[in-house]
Amino acid sequence: MDEQEILTEVKAGNTTAFERLYDCYWLKVYNFARLYITSSSEVSEVVQDVFVKVWESRETFDETKNFDGFLFIITRNIIFNYSRRYFNELNFKMTALRGIENSYNIEEELDAADLKNYVDRLIAQLPPQRQRIFKMSREQHLSNKEIAEQCAVTEKAIERQITLALKFIKDNLPLFIVFMG
């Protein structure tokens, strides 16, 4: 089969002829794409996308015309789309980084550190057993069941101690807010 016969068969929906077409042209598309795209996985995606597009548009191409030109146009357009997407992603990442950089505020960081110190002082005021249970929960990230086993009490008792600790902290936080405001 010559190229024109293969193209006629592809146009008619013959998948075997399409495989032959792919075998004849994939390396050309691959090498052309490598000129513009550095990632070999993206180059492979371009090749795949090009031949998907060829298959999808098989009914519209003229098998008597230059298939190389048709293939070149499809490949060029897909490479442009990949490049555009890459630059859009890069621009988005840079914008996000600038936003994070601009939103960083040393005063907020100091306020957060002050708040943590204040909460730590509040925790230190808790009764020893409640303080121990609260730290096991929040700092060691133990489950209520694990804490109950270590303290030889019920899970319900652990829940109660944590609830009381949280209530004490919440009740005393307004003082911090008034002091810092």
UniProtKB/TrEMBL annotation:
Molecular functions per Gene Ontology:
DNA binding; sigma factor activity
The Gene Ontology biological process annotation of the record reads: DNA-templated transcription initiation
Q: Which residues form the RNA polymerase sigma-70 region domain?
A: 21-85
Provide the alphabetized UniProt keywords.
Sigma factor, Transcription, Transcription regulation
Boundaries of each RNA polymerase sigma factor 70 region 4 type domain copy? 118-168
Instruction: Report whether Transcription regulation shows up as a keyword of the record.
Output: yes
Which Pfam family, giving just one, matches this sequence? Sigma70_r4_2
Q: Which NCBIfam families has this protein been placed in?
A: Sig70_bacteroi1, sigma70-ECF
Q: Which family does it belong to?
A: Belongs to the sigma-70 factor family. ECF subfamily.
Name of the protein in its database record? RNA polymerase sigma-70 factor
Instruction: State the organism named in the record.
Output: Bacteroides faecium
